[in-house]
Amino acid sequence: MEQAVEKITALARSVAEQHSTMEAAFAEERAAEERLLGQLVDAVRPALKALSSRLKASETTFWPTSTEIATEKTYHPERGVRLDGNGPERDHPRANDGGIGGTDLVLLDDGTFARLDWTGTWTRWQGRTSEETSTLTRITLRDVVETWDVDEIAATLSERLEAQATGRASKTTASARQRTEKLRAVAALLGGRG
Known about the structure:
By secondary structure, the chain is an alpha+beta fold. Helices cover 49% and strands 31% of the residues. The mean pLDDT is 91.
């Protein structure tokens, strides 16, 4: 019996040391991911205004009359780019009604992260109201590292930047400049009459 106790004691000590080493390695990995995430934010910061859009705070769909539906939306004052998540998501999409839930990770245009937590109810029934609401909570780099995959965040940021760079921005800018010149010409004509 003494040999069994000694063996268990030695194994327990060995397992405890392994676990301690593993926890230290995980802590080092999280710290490295946190540093990398900070560097990613610093790198993308100049483009955040271009990547960011309004963040929906709520959406209500209702029946003002027996034959029409209407939708009202509100937005958070913050703007940002959605990087990951699953909200708002219907719980039973093949049912006639149910709940809405989910969580999204957002990089705000000021370079901080936020979590959008979605709640609500939905229905297919005429005359009943569907509503989804998000709560915006600012979170730290450590929160992001502990919950989301930094590699996926980096890939998503890269995709968003590529899409923005190859998108319609240059065409829209040229169109705005042409319109500005036309407006200046009209203003000059009107100004000459006064």
